[in-house]
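We emphasize that the prediction below concerns an isolated chain of 246 residues; any contacts that depend on oligomerization or on bound cofactors are therefore not represented. The input was used exactly as deposited, without trimming of termini.
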Amino acid sequence: MLAIQDSPAGRFLDSLGAALPRPKAIVVASAHFTGERPSVGAAALPETVHDFGGFPAQLYDIAYPAPGEPDLAAAIAQRLTEAGLHPEIRPHHGLDHGVWVPLRRMYPQADIPIVPLSVNPMADAAHHFAVGRALAWLRDEGVLVIGSGGFVHNLGELDWRHPDAPMPTWASQFAAWMCDRLSANDTSALLDWERQAAHPHRAHPTVEHLMPLFVALGAGGDVPAVRTLHRSHEFGSLALDAFAFD
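Result of the prediction step, given as a C-alpha cell string:
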C-alpha cells in the first residue's frame, strides 16, 4: 500500500529522488527476489510484477515501465564471479514490488534503467555484505545501489486495525540496537545481529527483509559515512527506517 497511500514513509520517498544526484542506473537488492545464488535481472524491458494478493484492484493496474540495463547486469555478474559468489543472470526477470513500489515514488517518470538483485534467505549477513562489497565500484560509475526490505518485519505481530499504533517494546529495542550500531559503524556487531541484537527473531522471523540492508552497507565502501534518512513505523511494529551509506 506504500505505493498509493499517504504516509510519512511515502512522503519521504516522494522527496528522496530529487534530493539525490541523478543516477545513471539503479541496482535494487529486493527482499522479494530470492535465490540460492546471487541472481541479477538482465531484462531489457522488465515487466512490472504484482507479486502479492488480496489488495485493492488499483495496485494491480500499476505499471512501472523503466528500462533494464543488460550490459550493467553482465558487468555486475562478472564482479560477483570474481568475488567467488557464483552468480546467475536472469535474462527475463521482472521488477517485483520491492523494486517498483519505492522507485515509483522516488522516480515517477520511470526513465532510469533498473537492475534487480536477489537476496538469499538461507544465507547470513556476512554473505550479503560480501555481495555489497562486490558492488562498491558502482558508486564511482554513478549507479545508485538500494537495499529494499524492512527494518522490523514480522507480519504476524502487526496491529492491522490500528495503523498508528505505538511501536511495541521488543520492536523498538531491536530498532534502537540496529540504529546504534549503524551510527557507530560497528560492522562486526551488525553482521552478528542474530546473536547480539535485542529480539532478533521476533523482529525478523525470516531474514530476507533485513538482508538488503547489508548489501547496501557493503556497497558503501570501506568505511562509509552512515546517515539516517528517515524513521517511521506503521501498524505498531512495521519499521520503515532508511539509511544512506556514503
